[in-house]
Amino acid sequence: MEKKVLMKGNEAIAEAAIRAGCRHYFGYPITPQTEIAAYMAKRMPKIGGTFLQAESEIAAINMVYGVASAGLRVMTSSSSPGVSLKGEGLSYLAGADLPALVVNVQRGGPGLGGIQPSQSDYFQATRGAGHGDFHMIVLAPASVQEMAELTVKAFDLADKYRMTSMLLADGTMGQMMEPVALDDLKISPMPEKPWATTGTKMERKRNIINSLSLVPEELEQFNFARYEKYAEIERTEAAAEEYRMEDAEICVAAFGIASRVSRNAVDAARELGIKVGMIRPITLWPFPAEPFKRSLSTVKKYISVELNMGQMIEDVRLATECRRPVTLCNRAGGMIPTPEQVLEAIKAAANGGEQ
Amino acid sequence: MNKLTFRTDNCKGCGLCVDVCPKKVLALAEDVINKKGHHPVTAVNPEACIACAFCATMCPDCIIEVEKGV
Amino acid sequence: MVVFKKPHALSDVPLHYCPGCTHGIVHRLVAEVIDELGIEGKTIGIAPVGCSVMAYNYFECDMIEAAHGRAPAVATGVKRANPDNIVFTYQGDGDLASIGTAETVHSAARNENITVIFINNAIYGMTGGQMAPTSLPGQVTQTSPYGRDVNLCGYPVKICEMLAQLDGPEYLERVTVNNVKQIKNAKRAIKKAFQNQIDGKGFSLIEVISSCPTNWGMTPQAALKWIDEKMIPYYPLGVYKDRSAEKKGDEQ
Asked: Which of B 7-26 lie inside 8 A of C, CB atoms?
């Protein structure tokens, strides 16, 4: 019988990371994710791991870079303003092809913003986490159970593709308490990392971890190779949940906390006889374009529900190649749309008729 | 006799070795240009070498090997 | 009998440094120490951004290239991952004393068990001779063309003196490499900094007053003289902290 424990989302991330074999955590206090650091501070010394409160977000991400270079599973976590500071390190991790997990429990911005939940780092996570051409694998949990499951998956994907995974949550997800079945987590062994800098032992040629490449022809080839890898990830790793989409004429697109609100609204609209469903991206990069493309056979209108000024909506438009209207139903600055607000948007779309 | 060996191609002709030699063994070869485009160091007075290795110690490019009593 | 040859830990490739630049001397000293301590197989070197950005090409041990100023943080990660590795950073003044000041101070405060080689040549070399945090008052550089005006841009940062105020660091020493005697002394200091790490004593930083003939606009010979005349009076050589020795002193 599966045993469930009641946990905060932030704690579920921390515990799942430990179960996935992560023994090194570096972080800097910032609301609303500090429970992750607190959990690690308590647990790591007991299991022979490292918890270190770094002097800055910048130092934390570079400590991550060091452990990743040594070939071990490693993570850091922060919230929006802190993730901006980590941007430099994220770019270097990408340039040096190092696997790591970075958690962003988002809060409202820009600037110092607020401490209430937000999804306004979608662009940062999926498009521009730092300078240069690169992507991170971005996973968006929608329950505390998924916080745990996707943390494990994030480590697996990071190691498989030698790149950074980001778990993109928000303040609600981080603070929310739900029962979690931790014993069900599927932990796979970490792959061999012959490239890691662990010392030559005078038995092999030196390994070099590096993102500098002054010969443009070579740097171009590195970029080409990285984007071939990205193309493979786009083909094989995109994931989404489709909810009541079989005959849907209206499709709500929402991830994370927005999808939980939207699910209620979809159910309420179905009660009213409106043919509406939801596509919930689980990977934000790669964006799951395929279910959106497939949905074009029945869907006439799309509604992107987001806790920001409209960011994922661009990917919905790209995935549907702008062949249907896409409207935005949103709140920003730390506010969350209500199921009623989303239901009104669905009703408006249904009453608006065909375009 | 002591022996100096130079990895001449890597010499940048800075002359720090020439200046530090207590026996005036070394000079830059004004009539030679190496791969890097420098006048490399050469032993103009090799028999005076006392194998003190001051030249090799000062050399920023580690191009000098010193052998004593060859 | 061979009395001097290239150390094994120093790669057999030409260094990119300018003629007469003392970076090469310090590279060789580090490699000699790695050879003599027999630690090449477990040493991880961390190169910074600056003139020594390509140092990862010059050592035979495993190497990591870090972001500007972040080498001590990266070293912290590497050392915490594998405490049996010997981890050193090799950083210039812009890297260590300007953009990476926080990482320097806090790795020292934590007494992180790493070895830091700090090249202070009072200028940004790689980018073509701009004012460094360690440029001397009045020193002419590309970005202080009328000489460093302390009223406008403040005073140089004295890293050894500053870090010596902390309880954390194990060992801090300032040396130079502008003549044979000083080079031998610098090697002794560097060896101690590595030995401290092997002995688990903690953070050791060796500041090496170095020359930059190209960006100082001098011959290599004149640059070595300038170290004696200008640099050392401002940056006195010597041991700034030796916790083990202090402890011994307390016991006596």
From this structure: 9-10, 12-16, 19-20
